[in-house]
Write a structure and sequence with these properties.
By secondary structure, the chain is of the alpha/beta class. It has helices at about 20-30, 65-70, 150-155, 155-160, 210-220; strands at about 5-10, 35-40, 75-80, 85, 105, 135-140, 170-175, 180, 195. The chain has a 6-stranded mixed beta sheet, covered by helices on one side. It has a 3-stranded mixed beta sheet with strand order 4-9-8.
Length: about 230
Amino acid sequence: MKKKLLNNVFIGFDQKEAIAYHTFVQSLIDVSSVPLSITPLAENNLYGYDEKHSDGTNKFTYSRFLVPYLMGFEGLAIYFDGDMICLDDISKLTKNVDKNFAVKVVKHNYKTKQTKKYFGQKNENYPRKNWSSVVLWNCSHPQNKILTPDFINSKDGAFLHRFKWLDDKQIGEIDKKWNWLAVEYEDITDPKLIHYTLGTPCFNEYKNTSFSENWTKSFNRLKQGFDEN
């Protein structure tokens, strides 16, 4: 198997939401047409990085920006938040990529419908909200080589999540269906990836909300083979 056929996938991991991570991985496996190299961005696994920020809403608020560094600043990789379900083959995201782009993202432009999200956390509006929740990284791009552990620890969330180390022309765009925000956006019949940004259906308050049936289907697939008696 040639290496170029692999899709390098990095997913945010927080033990408080571990079941969401594993359910998302199940959904990726179910729809992928090529082998996946999946890496959880777990805080205890990130060699060379000691988290200094204290304002993150989860354990991967800042570690997502390590992806180019973890890839040795070579090749393509896709980062996803852990609170998602994939419904289409992610290899479509890595085909015919314009290498002039340092990253490609879904360029959301919305105001949240809820002031609180999972665990009662504040849910505030800010520029480029959720742009960094799905990122196609061109790890070889010269502008991304600045993303060392020390650099990331020296910058605040506004700088990093708004991709301020890049010129806007270096930020490409992904179809919105690849980061469809449950509850925040209207229900559609053909999302490619659903993002439960307010809370996954593993939490009681979200178990019957928008697109919850898609999450439950992948969760049930994950449990196959276990004795539930």
